[in-house]
Structure formats: structure tokens, C-alpha cells
Amino acid sequence: MPVQIDVLFFDAASGHRSCAEALQHGLLQEHPDWDVRAVNLVDILARRPHLVRRPIAWGIHYFNAQMRRESYYGNLTLFSISILWSRLIQRWPYIVRGLSEFWTLEGRRPDAVISVTPMFNPLVYAAARTVNPDVQCVTIPVDYSEPCSGYWFTPDHRQTYLIGAPDLEQTALDLDVLPEDVRMMSGMPVDPRFYAPPTQDRRELLTSLDLNPDLPTGVISFGGQGTVHVLQSMQSIAEAKIPVNVICLCGRNAPLKAAVERMSSRFPKVALAYRPSPPVDILHAADFLIGKPGTMTLTEALITRTPFIFINSAGLHCIQGQNEAWVESRGLGLGVKSPCDVSRAVREVISNGSFLAATDRERHRGIFDAVYEISQLLQRRPRYRDAATPVGAPVEQSQMA
Fold first, then answer.
1. CATH no. for residue 297?
2. Residues 307, 251 share a domain
3. How does DSSP classify residue 394?
């Protein structure tokens, strides 16, 4: 039987799904004989819809609705309630057994469960261990900081952490995560296709989109949900009459796409709807990217050598504040306070070659590090068979001392 791996994500914003699909693609590229799939966490929680799936699905829906409007209220409270609820229901054996039916009903016995989602991992890992006590539980934090207690790091439950931000390593150790459970990557993992040369020539691609290949090109992307900042950023560039092409990635937000298409602009623009494949060729063709400072977005920009302009997010500062500081401290781009300031940043980025040089200096191979570490864990499985605490199981306080 091939190695079976489930990579868990949820659709709060789009970065978690992007990272899960990147890991799936990277693992299958290295191990084509493995059975690797990306799994929506909500599908696992559906085994107990009333107590588990519905409240969590509502929280995801609420978060995405705020994101489309770029209006955020009470996120830390929402996170804390979600963490508390997941810890509470984990104490109920029939909940854990019910969630394990996600695997047992299809006769699947995963060798590894890898999560790129926060908050709910102890609950899901407990369910996975009822199916396979030797399952490798791996958490990959896709943020540069821990916004609140228990968000990513749960030292009372053994798991392996793959970490792509140096500050997070120290955070994990400060929270009493065992050093042997922490593995470092050179950076955050994104789809390995971003590392490959583009499949389409830049001039050919821009011409196919009815853009001017002789002009600098910018991409505006605020995630798969699409947000009002796409429209506002496009307005700033259009009103400033900056001679650039603009590609607006509108995600699943059809009204946003229609609004961008209706907007008048002196220079070429195009609005694109959600596409299941990552925008590899588009970012390779771009001279700058405007977006939310989410981890996947800024890492895709880095790997494709695309200077990054981000809009500071007061509502998501608890998650993205460290991301913003990381970009600016390394000279990879500029932050602005509002979409109205985007045009100023665009002029500076396209006239200053230092941002492009910084992307070469900071380039890393995080996805390949992740694939290597996961492969090593599975080659040595079961890692915790003789340990006092199996992976995914609660750690007694006496063991943590």
C-alpha cells in the first residue's frame, strides 16, 4: 500500500489552501507513488455537524465576509473562542470517534496528517490517532508570529513543527515545545512551480491579455476571496495616470471583477476571475505585486522576483504585522497605509532596482525543505512507538517539566 498523506487546509482567506496544494504538488513531484491529497478541514468536521462543523464553518464565513469588505472586527476574540471550543469538545470521546469516521468510512489509514491550519490541530490529530496510533502529525505554521495562545503551538500535544520563520522557532521553544519536535525550513513553502521558468513568454502572455508588452506590468491580488482593495488600488493607479499595465486578480468575487472592468483607465488593464492553478506565469511577467501581506502572497512574490507593495492591515495586524515588518526589513517592498497611497509606491518601486536585487538575496527553497523533512519523518516511522507520548497525544505536565 502506498504512503497515505492528508494535508489539511480551510478556506479562511486563500493562503491555507494554496499552501496545502503546494505541499501536495511538491510531495507528489518527489514521490509519485505516494497517495497525497489536500483535505478541507470542514469535510472532517462534517462527521459532527451540529457541535463542530456548523460553528466553525460560520466562523470561516464571517472572516471571509469581513475580508471582502476589508473591515475586520473582533478577530482575536473569534480566534480565542475557536481555540477554547476545540479544546473543550476534544475532551468528549464520541466527538473524536465521530471525526475519525472521515477516514474509517473510506478505509483510509493515513501515515501522516499535515496541517497548515491553526487552532483545531489537537482535535483532528486525536481523531487521526484513533485510526492509526503511529500517524505522523505535522503542523506547518504559515504565519510569521503566534497571534494568541494556542493558535499554532500546542506543546501539550506532541507533533512535529516545520517552521519557516526564525522568530517562530524561538516562540515555539519559549512555549515549551520540545526542541526535537521543531524542524526549520529556509522559508515558507509555496508551489514548486513558482521556482520553474515560466511556461509562456512574457511578451506573448501580455499580448494574449490585450496588454502592452512594452510597459511595466503590475499585478493586484488580495487573495481568492477578492476584496475592495483591488478596486481601490486600481483606482489609485488609474487616477495617477501611471504608464503601466495592471492585471487585477479578483478571485471568486464576481461583482469586483465587473467593477474593475467598468473602470476607465488611460493604460491597459485586465480583470481575471479565480483560477485553480497558481498565477505562476503572471507573477513572472510582473514588475511589481500589490496585495495583502499574507505569507503565501509575499513568498510567491519573492520566489518570482517580484517587488511587493502591501497595504497595512489594522484589522489583521495580529497575524500580518510580522509579515509586514519582514518585507520592509529585508528591502523586498513597500508598505502603504491605504489604497490611496498605492500610486506613490508604484512609482518608487518601478524606478528603484534595489527591491529586485533584494529578492535575489532572500530567495529560499522552503517547499523543498518541507518535502525533505516530511520524507525523513516517514522513513523513520513510527517515530514515537517507544516514546512516552505518541505523536498527537496529550503531554502530561510531568513530562513537560
1. 3.40.50.2000
2. yes
3. B
Which of 103, 112, 125 is CA-nearest to residue 47?
103
Number of neighbouring beta carbons within 10 Å of residue 216: 18
Distance CA 148, CA 113 (A): 23
Provide the 8-state DSSP code for 110.
-
Helix (H) or strand (E) holding 137: strand 136-139
Q: Is 202 found in the same domain as 180?
A: no
The whole domain housing 63 covers 4-187+365-400
Residue 175: Cβ-neighbour burial (10 angstroms; 0-12, 13-18, 19+): middle
Task: Identify the helix (H) or strand (E) that includes residue 347.
Answer: helix 342-351
Cell readout for 398 is 510531568
Q: Are 251 and 223 in contact (CB under 8 A)?
A: yes
Residues 175 and 61 in one domain: yes
Nearest alpha carbon to residue 244 among 203, 208, 213, 198: 213
pLDDT at 304: 97
Give the residue among 190, 216, 191 at the shortest CA–CA distance from 202: 216
Angle among Cα 229, 231, 236 to the nearest 5 degrees reads 90
Q: Which three cell numbers stand for residue 273?
A: 476571475
Across 44-58, 80-94, 234-248, 374-388, the highest mean pLDDT is recorded for 234-248
Give the chain's radius of gyration (CA, Å): 21
Residues 15 and 136 in one domain: yes
DSSP assignments along 166-194, one per residue: HHHHHHHHHTT--GGGEEE-SS----GGG
Same domain, 181 and 199: no
CATH assignment at residue 388? 3.40.50
CA distance 241 to 372: 47
Query: What mean pLDDT is predicted for residues 164-188?
Result: 94
Please indicate, yes or no, whether residues 164 and 204 belong to a single structural domain of this protein: no
Residues in the chain, how many? 401
Q: How far apart are CA 278 and CA 39, in angstroms?
A: 18
E strand residue ranges, 141-295: 160-163, 182-184, 217-221, 245-249, 269-272, 288-291
Q: What are the grid coordinates assigned to 69, written together?
A: 469588505
* pTM for the whole structure: 0.87
Q: How many domains does the chain have?
A: 2
